[in-house]
Amino acid sequence: MDYSKSGGARPGKNAPRHSEHNAKGSAKNPFGAQTKKAELLARMKAAAEAKKQG
Prior knowledge:
The protein is built from one helix and no strands. The chain has one helix at 37-53.
């Protein structure tokens, strides 16, 4: 059989199949945006209290 005429597999396009809902640079997660440490600590304390409460 002459395989030279059958054609090969197409190479991948190196692109994701879909976009993430919180991808970098989107409205939900803009570039350069970082949460403040005080906000992070407040969230962690609130989560610890909620876990302690039940």
